[in-house]
Amino acid sequence: MDMKKRIHLELRNRTPSDVKELVLDNCRSNEGKIEGLTDEFEELEFLSTINVGLTTVAHLPKLNKLKKLELSDNRISGGLEVLAEKCPNLTHLNLSGNKIKDLSTIEPLKELGTLKSLDLFNCEVTNLNEYRDNVFKLLPQLTYLDGYDKDDKEAPDSDAEVYAEGLDDDEDDEDDVDEEEYDDDTAPGDEEEEEGEEDDEENEEEEEEELSGEEEEDDDLNDREVDDEDDEEEERGQKRKRELDEEGEEDEDD
């Protein structure tokens, strides 16, 4: 797929001014030039053109907000002076795997005052004597060269830094929640046991309610039976009284 078509697909019905990141890796460039990329991409901050057969960056448009530029695994051998004009705020530049042979090729990068990180892995220039010391002298604004600073300390991954900050914030939030909702002495797994105990208690309460309901029904039945017996006894007493009254009346008639 050629670069113009790839850019069209990457837009996904967006306008160029809406795009902040653009990845064109492994597409085909025409005659080693950047095509289809215009200064309408005014908000672009990250551009990746890995392994697209570039031989020059001369056709790069004006991208004032571009901070990270990936140009690795191409065939660039010079012409880097345009970067200071086209991408004045560049902080990260990856030129690893290109045909850069000497320090004079990268010397124009000293005009990029904001350049913080430069990668030249697998370029012939890395075989020069005192390569690292000379590059840091040539480009004093650099903090990291090929992933390490002047003291050979590895550069922290920018994404990892952001992620770590996010984790710190999440941990603080979790600590607040733990202090509010949980007891400090509660061990992992206790929560599930407590939930199980609560369920058992609820079941016991339901069983007690059912039993109490049955007992109430039995009491009601017993009360009704006692009432029926009392009524029958009262009727028998009244009947007996009527019989006695009738016998008394007969005696009086005699």
UniProtKB/TrEMBL annotation:
The keyword NADP does not apply. The keyword RNA-binding does not apply. Its main location: nucleus. GO terms for cellular component: nucleus. GO terms for molecular function: histone binding. Pfam families: LRR_9. Keywords: Leucine-rich repeat, Nucleus, Repeat. Residues 165-254 are annotated as: Disordered. This is Acidic leucine-rich nuclear phosphoprotein 32 family member. It comes from Echeneis naucrates (Live sharksucker).
